[in-house]
Amino acid sequence: xxxxxxxxxxxxxxxxxxxxxxxxxxxxxxxxxxxxxxxxxxxxxxxxxxxxxxxxxxxxxxxxxxxxxxxxxxxxxxxxxxxxxxxxxxxxxxxxxxxxxxxxxxxxxxxxxxxxxxxxxxx
Length: 123
What we know:
Helices cover about 20% and strands about 35% of the residues. By secondary structure, it is an alpha+beta fold. A 4-stranded antiparallel β-sheet has the order 2-5-6-7. Strands 1-8 form a two-stranded antiparallel sheet. The two termini are about 15 Å apart. About 25% of the residues are buried.
């Protein structure tokens, strides 16, 4: 689902037999301190909550691996995600992030599975 609008579906997935998926995001379990919305997911590099509205779906051959990768992909920049593909093989992902203006940015790595970007997405 869209990180800020659960009625929208910007990415579709056709999951093949033998594959597992996990999704993590900052949009559901937030808390507020001094007027700032903060995520329940912490960036281990800084110790601070992940900023913004983000969602990541990872598809791998192992449910455990996809769960771990969603957290890692959630905190990484686009360049860092691209480098991760070179380090770890055999997984795909869709990273969705809503900007402060409300625009949706989608970064998809789909080589082995069928992660399909919706043709009617709002970006």
